[in-house]
Amino acid sequence: MKELNMIAFDLGASSGRGLIGSFNGSRLEVKDLHRFSNDPVDMTGHTYWDVLRLYWEMQQGLLNFANSGQGEIASIGIDTWGVDFGLLDSNGLLMGNPYHYRDIRTEGMFEEAFQRMPREEIFNRTGIAFQKFNTLYQLLSMRLNQPEVLDNASTMLFMPDLLTYFLTGEKMTEFTEASTSQMLDARTGKWSGELLEAMGIPNHLLTEIDYPGSPRGKIKKDIAELLGVNQAPVFAVATHDTGSAVAAVPAMGDNYAFLSSGTWSLMGIEVDKPIINEKTLKWNYTNEGCVGGRYRLLKNIMGMWIFNECKREWDRRGEVFSYKDLDSMAEQSTAFVAFIDCDDDLFYHAGNMPEKVQQFCKQTGQAVPESKGEIIRCIYESMALKYRWSFERLEEIKGQPLDLLHMVGGGIKNRMLNQFTANVLKKPVICGPIEATAIGNLMVQAMALGEVKDQSEMRQLVKNSFPTEDYLPENTDAWDDAYDRFLKIQR
Q1: What SS3 class is residue 62?
Q2: 25 lies in some domain
Q3: Could you tell me which of 161, 136, 125, 129 has the C-alpha nearest to residue 238?
Q4: Number of domains forming the structure of the chain
Q5: To the nearest whole percent, how much of the chain has pLDDT over 90?
Q6: Relative to the CA of 91, which of 110, 183, 327, 491 has its CA 20 to 30 Å away?
Q7: Is the pLDDT at 342 greater than 80, yes or no?
């Protein structure tokens, strides 16, 4: 077959990338097209996404392709993080910069929401974990504090759907992204009218829902001419980045857990139907959409965010070290000095993260890590220990032991954390591919183009196309002792 050039735009919470996927029917080759940072903007006491700059960066990626002499674009897909959105007015114009999910406006919204509908009922309807950044609480905050904005808005589009709208003019909402909002009825796959009404959220804001592989029109003529590209078709992929990452897990069989490792660590299993019961409510597990209409039962864990914020603080002070140097400092530091609960509210917002790590250790009666290496090692060990807690809860929910863990995403470049994870789980850990999210995005495009049959064939193609690295457990007794200590400091 003729080789297809597909483009994936994959925007994470700290960086974005455009990649070319060249597919010949049996193997996928991925090359960089354009990489850029994704930098939130703090202004007037709130935190926003610079969405117009992100759209501009996407245009630079398309310009790079136009200047590469590689012919025509076969298709385009866009994925981003979940929950955040932009509002359009009746003329289809963006009403303001989208808020960042870490913005303070959702503080106190749990209490407001539970007065309108009990917590248990919200979970029973949606199957979604309670996170204060969920779209439900962002919109409730607007209803209470900015009612005029909601009243004047015509359409709400999640970030990947908004960027797709900028390219094509099509307004739709993709299933995997919609499922992160805590506004979707988990049993019907439709918006929950009763929940929206209880929260005072106008139902007319929400569009129809489509699924991974659905067509979203073509690049608008004026944009194509401006950038020098063909009017390529744009498809809704698994537009939530974790949904795309999970689609690219090169797993054979079903008895495994996945971990998508990046700014957030998302650990879970795939299930045919949402699992909504006392255990998933108690442990705050979530049911989010997958390719093929299945679900990801997973736990949101604060991932590399804590480390990245430490590095950002040290850089700000002029204490600049490379990632490699910082990891080396951690390797040379004493093991198991102290631990943090990565998901503690203390670490949710930006600001002097090294001091926050020390503060948590002091408050929980532990030794306080002092050097950069000790702080980083504390973070990495704590992440691995939280992975074990989450993995064991998955086994209990599923009712049987899991054989192994598949780790994908940019976080797997950290070989020390990979080995720590194998050690504490006492299970094999298979790492790769790094660019899983973009690869899953590309595979759904290939499926939409009729070149790939189903999810099983997608996984086999990924396995054939990209290397993985195996990590086997070591020093497990010491990690068992550390885990016993870790369980005592969770707040």
Answers
A1: helix
A2: yes
A3: 161
A4: 2
A5: 97
A6: 183
A7: yes
* pLDDT 10s digits, 155-207: 999 999 999 999 999 999 999 999 999 999 999 999 999 999 999 999 999 99
Backbone angles phi, psi at 120, to 5 degrees: -65, -35
- pLDDT above 70 for 1: no
Q: For 73, left (φ over 0), alpha (ψ -120 to 50), or beta?
A: beta
Query: Locate tokens 């064939």: which residue?
Result: 457
Global pTM?
0.96
| Domain residue limits at 358 | 249-432+453-491
Coil, helix or strand for 79?
A: strand
Dihedral angle sign, alpha carbons of residues 478, 471, 373, 354: negative
**pLDDT of the residue at 345:** 94
Q: What is the mean pLDDT of the chain?
A: 97
Q: Using CA atoms of 274, 276, 279, 282 in order, give the dihedral in degrees to the nearest 10.
A: 110
- On whether residue 442 sits in a domain, the answer given is no
Task: List beta partners, residue 86.
Answer: 157
Q: What is the pLDDT of residue 491?
A: 76
Where do we find the tokens 């080759």?
Answer: 29
Judge whether 242 lies within some domain.
no
Task: Determine phi and psi for 185, rounding to 5 degrees.
Answer: -75, 115
| Band (252; pLDDT cuts 50, 70, 90) | confident
The domain that holds 68 is classified in CATH as 3.30.420.40
Is 50 known to be catalytic? no
Q: Is residue 177 a contact partner of residue 82, using CB atoms and an 8 Å limit?
A: yes
Whether the CB-CB separation of 430 and 468 falls below 8 Å is answered with yes
Determine the residue type at 279. Answer: K
C-alpha 7/C-alpha 445 separation (Å) is 9
Q: Which two tokens stand for residue 52?
A: 């117009």
Catalytic residue among 79, 84, 103, 241: 241
Cβ-based neighbours of 221, under 8 Å, separated by 6 or more: 231
pLDDT digits (tens, 9 = 90+) for 128-163: 999 999 999 999 999 999 999 999 999 999 999 999
